[in-house]
Design goal:
3 copies of one chain form a homotrimer. Chain A is α+β, with helices and mostly antiparallel strands. Chain A is about 20% helix and about 30% strand. In chain A, a hairpin with a 2-residue loop joins strand 12 and strand 13. The longest helix of chain A has 29 residues. Chain A starts with 8 loop residues before the first strand and ends with a helix.
């Protein structure tokens, strides 16, 4: 059974990834060919010629069309067939599916479901992208041989930091600090403050803290799989209030988790920060630190995925720290169920069944 | 479900491939051990000792017999057990299946079905093999990770040449030239002439054409999977008639398409030509050109096979140029169905069911 | 269907393999994490955290406990959970399965079934381990991509030696010498003497024989998969009786065959000998000779396993030399059937069904 939500925006890549060449990708098990038209618009089509199924990404661009590399059938950026060599007509069935694409803040998003339902207002955004007090820096794309739910769940799970990242993002000081959880609309949040502790490795290097700090981790998971991790540190003498985090060194680490196949996920990661603006060396330093930490996650997440493929004689257990991941998995299951049935009636009318 | 026809001759290799050693091959999913007896006859046996299943190709030759490498059971070239170490009798069930083999024109053919039905008159032949005006040159064997039907279909499909081989065997000049199709007995033919066009890359190098030529492609597919591609060029000033092709530089490219497994095919290819007879340099030059072109086919055919393994939400479409491939696939399906049912009555009497 | 017997002792490794680190292994398809406690006891636990399934072998030792590498759940050497970070209680379901372990003569055994049935008296032993007239030398572990039944069967099969090891352990002189078979309790034995023949390669090198010898092979297979191969040579002039083998150069080659997965087996091999005691060079020389011979077995056993995965149109045949392997396979099948049903009543009372 699928673990994918189709009617959602997923990150296909950074704007810089899309040039004039044909780019083959896969999102939610759907193979795509993507390219940027001469006018600048990025297009996403089903990567399958309807004739002999050759991926269109094996063909070539002719202007703003793609010519199949086998028999030359040619499609425009909306998937309409504009040429069938050897005949004058182009039959109606000669098309490829198109997928809606939207580009914003240097990020290319694709809507994997019904194009008519695509609403660009639903695309993740935050005001700091365009705030002069903040600097946005695109990192890289982490490829993980694990289901995307493991990857996304990990991003609303502050408790793993002490054990997976003991020398980078966490430390033993946080092992037993309780996690708070709340939900707001389509966002699930988990957070904790570690007060009056030595700075973790990351903030020894970035921010230059040496004395005790207050530090925070806020994990906000936007359905279905975009994570915003608001974390930072401030000198303990500053007596920082929870809502006053901009006074400290504050970072938003963003993770755009893209399901590729059931066993493969790409995490495009970047960050925004309120210090060291336009400081390329700081960006490079942070990328390097993130790469160390994310390699730690990758090892765990791939081992968990592998373990999930084994026969299970006993059900896994859930513990106190799992509140946010549990809410997340339930919401995903509910949305998949809704997508699987929304053709059969009014999907919003769940009260009908309950009250009848 | 199988895509293989069992009662057919397939090329196992060139005569030069079969010496005194034991050679392991696979044809239509049947593992074979083949070897040449001291008298010169090539033998093909099931590559499986009936005792503990070790491939006999892991054993060793003792004269014209094969001794299994595990416990020494020994079989002659007809699959009869001649020795069971540790006992005096050789039980009736101690045999391996044999397959009929025939060698002609330096080519070794194996009949993969009922030995009693093997008829060497059915083996592909053409008079030019023994015509002093023609030179035959064996090329190589191309291994392709694709079902053999994709490979064979491609060899009765002139339309792909313009797009898959734009710089070698084809050019844009032929993109819209119509394809003619006919059938005659067990041969399906597709052809077209491109009149008064610049010579393609191949005939610039071989034949030395520089001015405009008339050129032709005749694709003859002999069931189940031998292709003869009659192609050539002639100076446009010669005003060559269709049936007068020997006046030009004419080549028969032969492809013996051998199904190995459902996802693996070997194409033994060679050619005959009516010029540059006994010119080894010309042979080498043509092999080199063919290798470039066939690598182009291989990339396409493997990508198509891979795409066929994906879930399909829509059926592939057929277009005007598909006439010959469509006839071919129907004939293959009909022969598979006939093989699957021919034990149940008179397979030729299909009218019985229709009229009763 | 499984080919594994759960209620049995299997060799997990040599004592030297188990230190303070966490060691991941797999036996009968069960993933294990093993480690040696500070007191010296070796422990084996299910290699799966009950929370998010991460293998505990990816975690770290904290004293004599293992802390999971994901969220820090911690287990002692009996699988009891001693800590769940983020909460005070440790729920009952928070445990991992433990497996009984016993260490003797430098060999670590694991019992893969019900711990309450583990009886260390059932572990294979022989008096020569502690006899000053004998030298025990641990060899290595051979990894074989084949089901363990193929590996074990091969170790109660003297007939293969002439064909698989013609230049090392066997020679053509033994090809037709009959094999004797007997059973005694849980041991199946097959043996033969080759009288008055040239020494085989092994005993030309070890023992220095050059004239004719009497040589013997006794294969004793202890259920489920421990083999003792008693083999040796003695000058033919000595007229050695069968029961007087200690007079010759005598070797016990031991094979501890551990089923890993259905398609993977590890054979820990060692030997005891009654000559060249404490002669390290002799041990090294024998290891080198064994490695050549066992590589010959490995090639055969992997090819047989591969052939078994093919569709079979005919059943394999059994021949005279198969007596011991046939008894062995039947006993394994009977024990698997007994394990599959022993919860449903008194497994010994098979007469009930027959007499009712």
């Amino acid at each position: 059974m699928t673990s994918f939500i189709r009617n959602a925006w997923y990150v296909a890549g950074w704007s810089r990834d899309f040039g004039t060449d044909l780019r083959a990708l896969e999102i939610t098990g759907q193979r795509l060919v993507m390219f940027r038209e001469t006018g600048g618009t990025v297009r996403a089509l089903e990567d399958r010629c309807p004739h002999r199924l050759l991926p269109l990404s094996k063909g070539k661009r002719i202007g703003d069309t793609i010519q199949c590399g086998y028999h030359g059938m040619t499609f425009d950026g909306r998937g309409t067939c504009v040429r069938v060599p050897g005949q004058d007509n182009t039959p109606k069935s000669a098309f490829v599916e198109r997928f809606e694409v939207h580009e914003r803040h240097g990020i290319v998003w694709a809507w994997m479901g019904d194009p008519d339902l695509a609403d660009t207002d639903q695309i993740f955004d935050m005001p700091e992208f365009t705030d002069a007090g903040w600097h946005a820096h695109q990192g890289d794309a982490l490829h993980i041989r694990s289901n995307y739910l493991n990857v996304a769940e990990n991003l609303v799970d502050p408790a793993h930091v002490s054990f997976v990242h003991p020398t980078t993002l966490g430390s033993a000081a946080s092992e037993n600090v309780p996690v708070h959880v709340s939900t707001s609309g389509s966002v699930i949040s988990a957070w904790r403050w570690i007060r009056d502790a030595a700075p973790v490795g990351f903030f020894q290097k970035f921010g230059g803290f040496s004395g005790h700090v207050d530090r925070w981790h806020y994990y906000h998971l936007h359905m279905p799989s975009t994570a915003v991790i608001d974390f930072g540190s401030i000198d303990v003498a500053e007596k920082c209030d929870e809502e006053d985090r901009n006074r400290g060194v504050r970072i938003f680490a963003l993770h755009f988790v893209t399901p590729v196949r059931e066993d493969y996920t790409i995490d495009h990661w970047m960050h925004l920060r309120n210090s060291a603006l336009d400081d390329d060396a700081a960006s490079a330093q942070m990328d390097a630190m993130f790469k160390v930490a994310f390699a730690e996650d990758k090892e765990i997440l791939e081992a968990v995925h592998d373990a999930e493929q084994q026969p299970q004689r006993r059900r896994p257990i859930r513990i106190a720290i799992d509140k946010a991941p549990t809410v997340y998995r339930k919401r995903i299951r509910d949305r998949i169920a809704a997508e699987a049935t929304d053709d059969l009636g009014d999907p919003g009318d769940s009260s009908f069944i309950n009250h009848d």
